Amino acid sequence: MSDEQNLTHIDEKGDVRMVDVSQKADTERVAVAEGFISMMPETLALIVDGTAAKGDVLACARVAGVMAAKQTSTLIPMCHPLNITKAKVECTPVTAGEREDGRVGIHVTTTCGVTGKTGIEMEALTAASVACLTVYDMCKAVDRGMEITDVRLLKKDGGKTGLWERQ
């Protein structure tokens, strides 16, 4: 394996480690991630109509996603704490017929940015995951069958490797 193919969080002895980024230059970095939570159409209607018992589900999910991005290094052991410069969470209702698989639910897209020595992909992924989990938490009383899927990185830019986009 070349150096670029080695797992950076594993040292030569096979032990996990936090990567030393002290010699890297600060660059602007951005990551975009997504997630989807499918649900019954009736549950989606409660969210869209604003009549869910716990309140504004999408507003709460957006705030939770931003808060999660800021806490990523406390959740993922080898993540560096970052001084995040941008965290945006968008929650879009998806109705019948909008997806090929026919599922309805909420599509979450997150964008996180930082000027620093290491990437921000984990923060964007954590934000998407927690936003979906928050929707589940707020609606589980009426729909325990909700399913969180498709949590994935869509784009990352900056740093030594530059731009990567999902095809």
From TrEMBL:
Its EC number is 4.6.1.17. Signal peptide: none annotated. Pathway: Cofactor biosynthesis; molybdopterin biosynthesis. Keywords: Lyase, Molybdenum cofactor biosynthesis. Substrate binds at residues 78-80, 122-123. The active site is at 137. It comes from the Bacteria. InterPro entries: MoaC, MoaC_bact/euk, MoaC_sf, MoCo_biosynth_MoaA/MoaC, Mopterin_CF_biosynth-C_dom. It catalyses: (8S)-3',8-cyclo-7,8-dihydroguanosine 5'-triphosphate = cyclic pyranopterin phosphate + diphosphate. The keyword S-adenosyl-L-methionine does not apply. It is an enzyme of class 4 (lyase). Residues 18-159 form the Molybdopterin cofactor biosynthesis C (MoaC) domain. GO terms for molecular function: cyclic pyranopterin monophosphate synthase activity. Belongs to the MoaC family. Homohexamer; trimer of dimers. This is Cyclic pyranopterin monophosphate synthase. It comes from Gordonibacter faecis.
